[in-house]
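Q: Could you fold this chain for me?
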Amino acid sequence: MEVVWALGQVGAVWMAVVLGLIVLPSALGISLGISEAYMWVLVKTLEWATIRLQKGAKKPQPQVPRTPSATGIIERDETPMEKEIALLHGADFEFSHSFYFCRKGMEAIVEDEVTQRFSSEELLSWNLLTRTNVNFHYISLRLTVVWVIGVVVRYCILLPLRFSLAAIGITSMIVGTTVVGQLPNGRVKNYLSEVVHLTCSRILVRALSGTIHYHNKENRPQKGGICVANHTSPIDAIILTNDGCYAMVGQVHGGLMGIIQRATVKACPHVWFERSEMKDRHLVTKRLREHVADKSKLPILIFPEGTCINNTSVMMFKKGSFEIGGTIYPVAIKYDPQFGDAFWNSSKYNIVSYLLRIMTSWAIVCNVWYLPPMVRKEDEDAVQFANRVRSAIARQGGLTELPWDGGLKRAKVKDTFKEEQQKNYSKMLVRNGSVGSLSAETESD
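A: Sure. Below is the predicted structure, expressed as structure tokens.
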């Protein structure tokens, strides 16, 4: 009986500390400086570990800034196909032209520029989160002791704390939106709904030890608009809702996610679709247009890539989001992988494993840039508009812009991509008269 009483006392003290020092300041939007002190200690520790690694390495390598394109094992030549083939024997048809396509095929087999975007970004130095990286072996006893201490801190202190905060945030979201949802539609309901969403999002960000830097807040999405952002992780939505309220768009789920969806939609005009409705593109577009047409409703939050990318690049934006009309508010999100990998590799980890990795990382640090609003030009189709918005996000976030569809994460390359290369080669031959000369020689024979 005494053991149970003692455990109860410990639990009461724990909850009092969590509520008093973290939850209440989060709800009020203030900071007691605990996160700043934690980040200062963390940065100093990682800097010390980096110095120890450099001293312990047999052949220390200079720390040269690396871009996503510089981390590959193949040095690619970006010369256009026509010029490369002309360097072989000429622009007319030659069997040696096949060497060009063989080389491109081998480059794609060894290291293509698509599939590497679906794996975690490589770090320049060890961040004390793993001992399985082949690049970082045993260096010194002190470094190993620091790593062991880090494991104890992350799993015995940070994990229980973050789990408690996540439980409080999710429970508050469900209860708060359910209560607000009972009120009649009007300004009071909308105001209370925004308060609940902002408060719970701030608590959930604290559950991730999130340090988020928002830039250009004067460009924040406005009501009746569409917010589009690059997609790295399911927590992207939490990162953005920590600074403003949005209407979410997505498919209806079951389980805990379904409970949250059913509760939040009562207080906020989120747009949830059944699985059968998601296949009807016209129905989806119609419902989104109706939402955008009402300037009193929150801006819609959409991730046009349709899948998570490892935050080194931005892939093709699907045009559906840009056919709705209205004003587009681009947002660029860039995470710092040194403190924790926010990328969700859904092919390797399920959502539970991913959340465990996130909650046992050091912190989630990222920058969010609000870009100036953009509208579709008169002579611009949806695809061109999507590409223009994607380019703006890539430039601001320092990300590589790729034309490939993120659906290649699970699907094969479409035949249209192969046919495009064949058409380009055929057009080159036609321009140089090679096809005509070949036909003439055949007829003379």
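A (continued): Strands lie at 210-215, 226-229, 247-251, 271-273, 300-302, 313-314, 328-335, 364-370, 400-401.
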